[in-house]
Amino acid sequence: MFIGELSRRTGVSTRSLRYYEQQGLLRPQRRASGYREFDESDVATVRRVRILLAAGLNTDLIREVLPCMADEGAILAPTCEEMAQDLKHERERLSRSIEQLQAAHAMLGSIIRAGEPVAVRAGCNG
Question: Helices (H), strands (E): how many in the chain?
Fold first, then answer.
């Protein structure tokens, strides 16, 4: 199938599909005319890539773990132990980022509250 058909079947833009190819996530065959030709398996690959992107992984890590991922219904499961460890490390990194964002959010809230007039903070309208 050509890129337009893959786009229709996956709901992913052709621009994103080209980017996935550039990042080594998809490897379509090339016709003599230069057109990309995708296999049926590429539909599943795009689905996996989308799940991993939604899980917060970057394309470099996705390229590493993608060969060791299997479909388990609506979710993916690692099939290689070392990949499971990489995913655990990535989850820890995300947890640290979440904590930093929550601290920044709380600090910004404090700054905003400090700038409000006393009457507004106390709930007075007058």
Answer: 6, 4
Tokens describing residue 97: 């980022």
Under the phi-then-psi rule, with left for phi > 0, alpha for psi from -120 to 50, and beta for the rest, what region is 56? left
Residues 41 and 45: their CA atoms lie apart, in Å, by 6
CA-CA distance, 72 to 77, in Å (whole number)? 6
pLDDT band at 121 (very low <50, low <70, confident <90, very high): low
State whether residue 58 is helix, strand or coil. Answer: coil
pTM over 0.90, yes/no: no
C-beta of residue 48 within 8 angstroms of C-beta of residue 76: yes
